[in-house]
Amino acid sequence: MSNYIFGKKQPPHKRWAVAWYNPFVLYRSIKEMLSTNDQIRNLDRREMYSPEFTLIQVAEDTRDGDFWWDFVSDTGDGGNATFTVAREMQKAFLTPKVCSDLKLKDPLPERFPTGELLVLGGDLAYPGASVEEYQYRLTEMWVAASSNPDMQSHRDTLKPSLVIPQNHDWFDNISTFTRYFIDTRPKQNELAFMSAETEPDITPLGTRKLQKQSYFAARLPNRWVILGFDFALVGDIDRQQFAAFFALFNSGKITPEDNLILLYPEPYWTRHLGDDARDGYPKRYQRLEALMLKLGCRIRMRLAGDIHHYARETAKADHQFQYDDMLITSGGGGAFLHPTHTKNVNTVKAMSLVDEDQAMTADLRERVRIGIATSDENTVRRYQDKTFYPRKRDSRALLLENVVSFFRSTAHIGKQLRACNTRAEHAKVFWGAVVQGNVMFSVLLGSLLMAAIMTESLWPGLIIVLMFLGICKESSNATAVIGGLAGGLLVIFVEYCLTNAPLLEGSEWWRIGISKTLVFLFCFILAGLFTGVLFSLFSLVGYLPNNAFSPLGYEGFKSFIRFRIDAEGNLHGYVWGTDDVPRYWIENPDAHQPVWIEKDKRKAEWQIKDIFILRK
């Protein structure tokens, strides 16, 4: 953990976003991920939850009016973005304002009340899960943003929440997530003085816990059911989870008359068709989806966060599926922006239904696959109607900033420096921005290049090649090879420029010191610019959607979805987004809540960026 300062004296702009290319952050993330992976391999914590799995009744079965609920994901990163989203979501009502390029087909409600249910899609704190990270990056931002100073005073009327974890929530083997969002209390005798059944357990966000596992099944009004899955770090549900959901369908608690929303921890449909499952051994979630379709259930929406933008892809009703269904990625709750112009987003997704007669047992024969299909694959459904936020042109325009991203801090320290009164305060802010920023990646590369020159050893250059090869493997083996070759060319170019440079000559101590400083500065600047240009070019042609764009750490284009189920059973979705977020905050002089208000020319101009409807 960094030297965090908690409480009201630490406003959002001082809670800097995670610099993902900072070597210390990378080391911590890799260490925690490997540790958790090892634990899952030996004892999967998902199989330690209560085996009693029930269909949660969120509200009445039938409602004559509207039922509103909210979805947000990927929240706990930089304070500016997280606080801005949390404040907007917790307002009692939102007044509709529609962006200029959105055409309305139906009149909008006069106002949009906050949801009766909060659904969180995971990745609630970065870079890894811990009590401190959750408190610093999520809990304090959410509580401080509330307009209700007594948010936990009426415990019996608190709104409920349903939550699934993503990969970063698993970095402490889901310990903090379990403590905060899962009701793990044992069932007590109903005649006991204090009954666990009548005392709701409260999350740090001031909501009621409903679930006993890290996954859930919940019934909403007017024949809508939402199922939330937990993939841990293995990309699939576990055996107990599969059995729990299977029992709900097998017992008739979920029927073909229900409309299903499947909440996934990651949008598997942005990967190649089949999600790398092997022939004869499908993934369990693929088998579960096949079971749903075989029983005649209607999967109307597959919803996920994990990728930090908004994308909706729709397949229209046809002769085989008499209903529309959607693939929705909505991870704009506070984390750095992911691009919408890359191939994983823009390539048309397709569905295939597979029946493998060569599978060893009958339960492994059928699977549903959705993803990026090649031209020769047999598919039954295509998702061609697409909507993105940010728009592709806005996403691509950010690449120019990405060129210099390895010299920028994730903090916007201009006003913070002007607010300092002493040189020591200036130095502390500036040094913190350097040490906790992506500039340290340039320092690392520059040091390795300098070591290659000074020691005439192959190892520093080989490490650089392997680093670029690993980073660029995100999209394919081909991009990995290109990245590795680019790293090799960088090493060769630096050695060519500096091996016979006259500044390396001389034996005086001061000449040696100046020479080494100049060599380092040359390596440092060249390495940072080279990496920024290389990543920008990869992103420009549609590759490395995470690894090439994350150095930018862009805080803008935040979003969440406010859903409405009407009396007829139609599901309406309203995507609220803001292109920018404030970057400087002061204590609220007029009220106790929210704790801070912006004092910045940058404002959060919230608008409805997309509207959709799934009819019952």
How would you describe what is shown here?
Residues 188-198 have low confidence and may be disordered. The chain is built from 15 helices and 22 strands. The strands form five sheets. It has an eight-stranded mixed beta sheet with strand order 1-8-9-10-11-13-12-17, with helices on one face. The protein has a seven-stranded mixed beta sheet with strand order 7-6-5-2-18-19-22. It has a three-stranded antiparallel beta sheet with strand order 15-14-16. The chain has two domains: 20-396 and 562-614, no CATH class; 402-548, no CATH class. It is of the alpha/beta class and 616 residues long. Strand 10 (259-264), helix 6 and strand 11 form a beta-alpha-beta unit.
In short:
The chain has 616 residues and is an alpha/beta fold.
Question: What are the salient characteristics of this protein?
Answer:
31% helix, single chain, 2 domains, alpha/beta, seven-stranded mixed sheet, 616 residues
| Number of helices in the DSSP assignment | 15
Radius of gyration: 26 Å
The tally of structural domains comes to 2
- Helical content stands at 25-40%
Secondary-structure blueprint of this entry?
Blueprint: H1 23-42, E1 56-57, E2 67-72, H2 79-89, E3 93-94, E4 112-113, E5 117-120, H3 131-145, E6 160-163, H4 175-181, E7 208-209, E8 216-220, E9 224-228, H5 239-250, E10 259-264, H6 284-294, E11 298-304, E12 310-315, E13 325-330, H7 343-346, E14 349-355, E15 366-372, E16 381-383, E17 385-389, H8 392-397, H9 399-402, H10 414-418, H11 423-435, H12 439-455, H13 458-471, H14 477-498, H15 509-540, E18 558-565, E19 571-578, E20 585-587, E21 596-598, E22 607-614
Parallel strand pairs: 1-8, 2-5, 5-6, 6-7, 9-10, 10-11, 11-13
Antiparallel strand pairs: 2-18, 3-4, 8-9, 12-13, 12-17, 14-15, 14-16, 18-19, 19-22, 20-21
Helix pairs in contact: 2-3, 5-6, 12-13, 12-15, 13-14, 14-15
